[in-house]
Amino acid sequence: MTTPNLDFLKAQLVELRAQIEAHNYRYYVLAEPQVPDAEYDRLMNSLKKIEHDYPDLVSPDSPTQRVGAAPLKEFAEVEHRLAMLSLDNAFSDEDVEAFDRRIHDRLEMDEPLTYACEPKFDGLAISVTYVNGVLTCGATRGDGLRGEDVTLNLRTVKSVPLRLLGDQVPELIEVRGEVYLPIAGFEQMNAAALAQNEKLFVNPRNAAAGSLRQLDPRVTATRPLEAYFYQIGVLEGAAMPATHAKSLELLRKLGLRTCPESQCVQGVGGLLQYYRQLGAKRSQLPYQIDGVVYKVNDRALQDRLGFVSRAPRFAIAHKFPAEEELTVVNSVEWQVGRTGALTPVARLKPVFVGGVTVSNATLHNFDELSRKDVRVGDTVIIRRAGDVIPEVVSVILDRRPLNSPVEGLPRQCPVCGSAVVREEGEVVARCSGGLHCLAQRKESLRHFASRRAMDIEGLGPKIIDQLVDAGLVRTAADLYRLDVEKISSLERMGEKSAENLFQSISKSRETTLPKFLHALGIPNVGEATALSLAMHFRQLHALQAASVEEILKVPDVGPVIAQSIHAFFADHENKQIVQALCDLGLSFAVIDEPIAQEGGLAGKTFVITGTLEGMSRDEAADLIRKAGGKVSGSVSKKTDYLLVGSDAGSKLAQAEKLGVPVLSLDGFRGLFDSAV
Ligand code: 9MJ
User: What is the pTM of this model?
Assistant: First the structure.
């Protein structure tokens, strides 16, 4: 190994420390972090590594020598009776194995140890003191030795008791825990902020920090904060429990909230199993966690192990892969959907986040793009939690290149060049090219062929692209004009595959009226409305000939949808396509009986929550009602099923608590199909 130049190392240390201090200030004092935790951890680890390799270069003011930044000026300072420690981190199974080995070595023990495991909450560490059972002080961690006095604010948090329970309360107990915002509460706060045109919080942790650090406790009282307690600091006038698990029992008995996910395990195998189990459950928990914490259960052993700098040797935090990472925006592109809707998409320098490599992130719509002010060349925070589509959380403004232009809404469709229009009051801007636009045409064909529409097996997006690009297909009717020879002329299309595709296209001719109406892609007509229309009119020609007034008689169809349906069937090109499809042999099985009150879901009560992919909640509710079921707004013991989409919040937590079966949209479709 060559020895690095000492001056170079010193300069690197100065730079690293300055960066970390700046992040600490933003994180702890302003509660407005600039970079994701993973980036901060990386800087800190680089600094720790250099200081470890060159101990002479460690200075007392290095960020490694203290837990956090200085307390806020406005709050009174509280000196902790016992220093509030931080935890060392483990990032891999090997790190955990090394932790277990270190403990065995130090204790000179061979047999597997009992560990207490618990989630690592992504909130704010707090300390609360009860004297003779009465809450006397609540403080943040601050720098570990002194924190801020947030007693008045903590008194507004419902899960922080003002008085302890039972008649055997200790003379004095100082307890550590975490204040956090449940995900549902965070979403509720951001929805309110959006409505008031106020700045949005980046994540639940920042929102919790901002809420707890309010100088006016009345503001804190409006924030749905919660707390979990996980450690006894000081105990006077009672015996300290012999294990961590017994400490948690004592806390529970005293009325302090502890986490139900806490659990004791044996040995390193038990630790890793707990890590994987909680990791699998992570996206369903109603609060955010960023890892798990392992603690030697036996207090006597904890005492023997002691501390290193500011962290106990008996505990470690095993981190999950980061759900937020930094990367750079290479370009902003506009995707054109089936109805012409323009969606901005950020093309990114590939980044590993949430366990996968991400190179695209949606920006939803022009308003969202403008609000976040994402520009080419920007360094952005990307978030990918669970299986949710990756999104841009925010831009790191300090890293923006000079003179980068603001992203505007294109005036012309990037695919066909037609004018882009945005109706007043509409969030969405659209390409006005209709089926002349190649993108809209391809998307319409994809929708037409999809499983919930004509269900043409083997006709996926790639083949549709090829068929359209080769000029073989322009409209849905052209699909039924294809023969095996034409299909097999496509690149990489074998004779057998061509034959199979031809057969599945032919087979799809026999369909039902609701599926066909859905497949046409009439604006504002989803699966549920298509079913209502089919049940009301029974025959395609009856619907085609209907006036707006007649269409309005269909249950759940309002003026906007009625107008949209009428305009669709009045359009010359649409008329020709529908006629051609009928001439090409499409046939519709007639629905004799409405699938109504006697339906297979009769007597079943559903609650719907979250964003459903490809179906609005109203449409799902319509389907349920048509099959005889009921839709309710809140989860109770009487709920038969909870239908969940992405970003589900408190309803999902409530369903899990009550043991109500939870259905994804696919699961729901399966149930619906077998019921009707
Ligand atoms: C968090 N953050 O969830 C501790 N922590 O214990 C849990 N932190 C801790 N324990 C001793 N669950 C020091 C810090």
Answer: 0.63
